[in-house]
Amino acid sequence: xxxxxxxxxxxxxxxxxxxxxxxxxxxxxxxxxxxxxxxxxxxxxxxxxxxxxxxxxxxxxxxxxxxxxxxxxxxxxxxxxxxxxxxxxxxxxxxxxxxxxxxxxxxxxxxxxxxxxxxxxxxxxxxxxxxxxxxxxxxxxxxxxxxxxxxxxxxxxxxxxxxxxxxxxxxxxxxxx
Length: 177
Prior knowledge:
Layout: H1 2-25, E1 41-42, E2 45-52, E3 59-68, E4 74-81, E5 84-87, E6 89-91, E7 94-100, E8 126-132, E9 135-141, E10 144-146, E11 150-152
Parallel strand pairs: 2-10, 2-11
Antiparallel strand pairs: 1-3, 2-3, 3-7, 4-5, 4-8, 6-7, 8-9
C-alpha cells in the first residue's frame, strides 16, 4: 500500500512539474491583423498556374494585382498565396509576382505551409503586405480568379522582362589614319 501511495504522489508531482514547464515555455503566437481601409484600391486579383517542360523547371503561379489610386507614401511589397510568398513587381499600373512551388513535380500541388508562414488562408484568398509611412500593413483579398494554366516547354517563365537595349554595337574608326 505504501508503494502505491508513493507511486501516486510521484505521478502527481511529475504532472505538475511537466505542466508548469510547458506553460512557462509556451510562446504567444502573434496574430496578424488585416487592414479594413487602405489608401489604394485593388481591382480583382487573378492568377495562372504554370508548368515547366523540363525536370528542373517545376511548377508555380503567376499572380496579378491591379492597383489604382495608390499614393506615393505607399509601397506594395509582397503577396502570400497558397502557402507561397513572392515579391510584388510593378509594371504599367499592375503588380505581379512569380510564386515558384518548392516541389519539383510536373503537376501543381499546394505546398505545405512553412513554420514562419504568417497566415492561414483559403485556396482562393491572398494577403498583400504593403508599407505605408514606414509601417508594414497587410490587406486580405478574399476572392481571386483563376485563368487557365499554361505549359512552358523550355522552363519556368520570367514575368519580369527587362527592356532590351536599342543600342546597336558599332565599330568606330576613330583610330584609322
